[in-house]
Structure formats: C-alpha cells, structure tokens
Design goal:
By secondary structure, the chain is of the alpha+beta class. The protein is 64% helix and 9% strand.
Length: 525
C-alpha cells in the first residue's frame, strides 16, 4: 500500500459511492457482491505470490465495498412516494433535538412502520388551544396526522437531496395539538435526553439575560440553534460569506478546545494529560449540540490526533505516524461506512473540503516558514526588543490566519457555487475580521454560562453586558461587509460545470510550460 493508506482507502471508498450513485439501480446488489468477492480473491492471490500490482486490489475492493454499502443504503423511494398521497397517520420516534420557536417547531421523526424518516413542522401559530403538547421533546414516541408531501427544491438550494442524504423522504405539516398523540415519552438515548434537557436550561439562561436579537445569535454560535436567529442577521452573515460561523463545526470546536487547552496547560499538565482531559469535554459538547455532521467529523479528527499524540509520547508508535490527514481520512471513512449517503450532505462536503484545504496548506507552509523564520527574526532584531518580538508574533499570527482562511475558502468555493450558486469574492479577507471577533464572542459566551449557572447573578449580569457589546459589534461588522457590492457573485450551476471543464484546458499551457522548464533545468544539471 502507498504512504497514508487511509487517505487512499477513503478516496477509493468515495469513488465507489460516486460510481454507484451514477449507476443508480441499473446494477443489482448481487453484482456488487460478486465483484467484491472476485476482488478479494485477487487480493489473496496477489499477496501470496508477491505480485507487484497487489496493492491496487485493496483500493478496488474498497471502491466496491463503498458502492455496495451505498446500494444497500438506498430507500425504495419510488414505492414509498407512491404511498404518500394515501397516508393519513404515521408513528415514530423523535431522534433529533427539536428546534422550537413560538410559531413553529421542527423535528425528525424516525418511522416505525416505514423505512426512513419524516421532517415534521408543527405550526403553533394556528393552534388556538393551550393543551399539553406544545413542545415536542427528544425521545418522544408519537402518532401524528397531517399533510404529507415530498420535500421541495428551489434554484438556491436542493432541499430534497439534502433531506434524502439523511434518509428523510417526506415532510409532514401539523397545525393542531389534536393531530399529535404522545404514545410514550423518554424512549430515546438517555445521554442525549440529558443533553437535550441541559440544552434547554442553557437556552433559558440566555433568554434571562439577553434580548431576543442578541440571544438568538449567541444560541447559534454556542449551540448551533438557528431557530431563534433574527432573519436579517442570518441574511447578513450569508451575504458576507461567513455563514459557516453560524453552523457549529470544527471552527467552533477548535475555538473551545483552544481556550481549554490554554487553561489546562497553564496548570502544567503534560500534552498527553491535556489531550485525555479534553476528550470527555469534547463528548460533552457533542451531546449538548446534538451530534451534527460537521461537529462529529471534527470530534473524530480530534480523537484520532489525540490518540496518536498520546501513543507517540509513550513510545508506542512513531510521531510521524500521527498524521492529521490520516486522521481526517479515518473520520471520513468511518462516517461513510455508517451512512454512505452522507457524501451528498452539503455539511459533510463543506466540512471535509475546508479541513483538507487547511491541512494541505499548513503542510506546505509550515516547513518553509520554519526555515525562513530564524533569518527574519535576525534581520528584524527581535532579540533586542520585546516590542519587536510581539510585533513579529502578531505578524506571524496574521500571516497564518490569512493562509488558513484562504485555503479553507478556496477549498469550499466549488461546493458553495454548486450548492448555493454563489462565489464569495473577498470572504478570506472578511474572515480575518469576523473569525477572531467570533472567537471572543464564543469565549465570552462560555464564561457567561459558567457564571450564570452559579448563584452569582451580579457577575453574570456584568458578563452578559460585555457579551452583548461583542455580539452587537459582530452583527454591525457583518452587516457592513454584507453591504459591500463585491461581497459575492451569483453563478449558475451550468456555468460552474462549464468552468470546471474548461479550467484544465486553460491551465494546460501553463502546466506544459512549467513541465518544459523543469525538464530543461534537469538537463542543465
């Protein structure tokens, strides 16, 4: 196998899923089983006879297994959708944390009598009764009647594909508490049930100290709940190209881990002890947020990196084996094994694309910076002045912030253009202002929740006042960036596909020239 085998296996698995997606139902599942068995036989023969091509067989086998897992995961959508018009009542279990607003609640109902799930929207504003069931909770087993229909899609976003990637094949709309019947409460996972109750308590603390406008933004930044977010604020973040700040992901986990890392290292804990101390805290944050796809990816990557660092420090493995790209590939492979359709989830695509871009950029830039940094320090005379050392550190931080922001934005730009028909022209510069400010907002929010949970109301009020100022500054800055005429460019999907086809042709003369220059240079040696 080549170096970084998990990266190659994950790429092969993804290739198999894409092939199966294109073929659809044209090939029966049995054909995939037979192809997999044949590849396994070739693998055994090649390995025993030491044939030079045998490392390619595991990649082919991974591709076939990826295609088989995708084919096995497909729902019989045609048959299910044919029954949709005759459905009058369904039963199921609420399997996610419901989003609750005064006018509407939404949740995912895993069906008991049919495969897959429904996305349910319960409209409170049309319900004139004040009965027992106004807020569906996680883990409730329900029976409901209402209007059942196929998910909609629009030019801006393919909502149907987004739900289909999560095994949700229909939408249920409910307008009255009489259409909802609780069959049994507290039927879900106990840990997640505790996380949901704790989440609601944190929401209550935020509502006590913040206005709806500021509190809605804080809930989105800390816990990924955008149901309370003001529509104007949401549109401003979208137009400025910083919508990812509102979607709890690896960025938020990294900000929280960064704060906890500094605190734990200040207590003089070793690196291994710090990693091991952070693992349960990462799990706690996952439980409070609700195991969102992007956060699960980031958490798995952190777990693999932490385990690699701990094992390397103890001498069990070599330090070079603790490779972030290997950890990222392992996280992707594990998630796709569990749910092959996650590959078509926009959150999965953006999360892994951004992280891959950042890791590749840092892998290229860090060695070069380490070679030239001592010369720059000597030229600037940083050893002579504390101010010069601080300015050098500040410049270094700004340089790598720009690198990380640019790498992430370039990596996700094709996916944003394809899914949302937008290219954000200056988002890498805007992120240099928004992300550091959002970092302080998240840190301040964590500090506020810690004080508000204690019987220290006067301290919590002071923390809430400072946090409100930071939130208003973040909102105002985002609105200014969103108002810029060059903040984003609308593109059509056809234009994007055409550009992706023409780009290699446009770059081929440059690549040809570079190839010839390299060849002439080698001959000159």
């Amino acid at each position: 196998m080549p170096r970084r085998p998990l990266v190659w296996l994950a790429a092969a698995w993804i290739g198999g899923i894409l092939i199966a997606h294109q073929l659809g139902e044209t090939l029966p599942t049995l054909a995939w089983w037979l192809a997999g068995c044949f590849s396994l036989l070739l693998l055994l023969i090649g390995y025993r006879r030491k044939l030079h091509w045998w490392p390619l067989i595991p990649l082919a086998l991974a591709a076939l297994l990826g295609a088989l897992s995708y084919a096995q995961s497909l729902l019989p959508l045609a048959a299910l959708q044919a029954q949709l018009h005759s459905l009058q009542r369904v039963r199921g279990l609420i399997v996610n944390y419901p989003s609750q607003r005064p006018d509407i609640s939404s949740f995912v109902l895993k069906l008991s009598d049919y495969p897959g799930s429904f996305q349910v929207f319960y409209h409170h504003n049309s319900n004139k009764q004040t009965q027992y069931f106004k807020a569906p909770a996680y883990g409730y087993r329900l029976e409901l009647s209402g209007q059942f229909k196929l998910p909609w899609s629009s030019e801006d976003f393919d909502y149907r594909t987004y739900l289909w990637s999560r095994d949700i094949w229909a939408i249920a709309s409910v307008w009255s508490s009489e259409q909802l019947k609780v069959q049994a409460p507290r039927q879900g996972n106990r840990l997640l049930a505790w996380g949901y109750r704790t989440r609601l308590r944190l929401f209550a603390l935020i509502d006590r100290y913040f206005s709806p406008r500021s509190g809605g933004l804080l809930k989105a930044l800390l816990l990924g709940e955008r149901a309370y977010l003001n529509p104007d604020i949401k549109q401003g973040f979208r137009d400025a190209g910083v919508m990812h700040v509102l979607a709890v992901s690896g960025l938020h986990l990294g900000i929280i881990i960064g704060l906890l890392w500094m605190l734990l290292r200040a207590l003089r804990l070793s690196i291994s002890a710090t990693y091991l101390s952070l693992l349960p805290l990462v799990l706690l944050y996952l439980v409070l947020v609700g195991f969102k796809v992007s956060l699960v990816r980031a958490s798995l990557l952190f777990v693999f990196i932490a385990l690699g660092a701990v094992l390397a420090e103890r001498g069990i493995i070599l330090r070079r084996w603790a490779d972030p790209l290997q950890g990222l590939a392992a996280a992707a492979l594990l998630m796709l094994i569990m749910n092959p359709k996650a590959l078509f989830d926009v959150g999965f695509q953006l999360s892994f694309a951004a992280t891959t871009g950042i890791l590749l950029a840092l892998r290229w830039a860090l060695p070069r910076w380490q070679r030239c940094a001592p010369q720059l320090k000597e030229r600037w005379g940083t050893s002579e002045s504390l101010l010069k050392r601080l300015l050098f550190k500040l410049g270094e931080a700004l340089l790598f912030s720009l690198l990380v922001s640019t790498a992430a934005q370039l990596a996700v730009a094709p996916f944003l253009a394809y899914q949302f028909h937008r290219i954000y022209l200056a988002s890498f510069l805007i992120n240099l202002a928004i992300v550091p400010l959002a970092t302080w907002v998240i840190w301040g929010g964590l500090g506020f929740l810690g004080l508000a949970a204690l019987p220290l109301a006067f301290l919590a009020q002071g923390a809430a006042a400072l946090e409100t100022l930071l939130l208003q500054l973040l909102i105002g800055l985002t609105e200014r960036f969103a108002a810029l005429p060059w903040s984003y460019l609308l593109v059509s999907r056809a234009a994007l596909l055409g550009a992706l086809v023409l780009l290699p042709l446009l770059l081929s003369p440059l690549a040809w020239s570079i190839g010839w220059l390299t060849l002439l240079r080698l001959r000159g040696r």
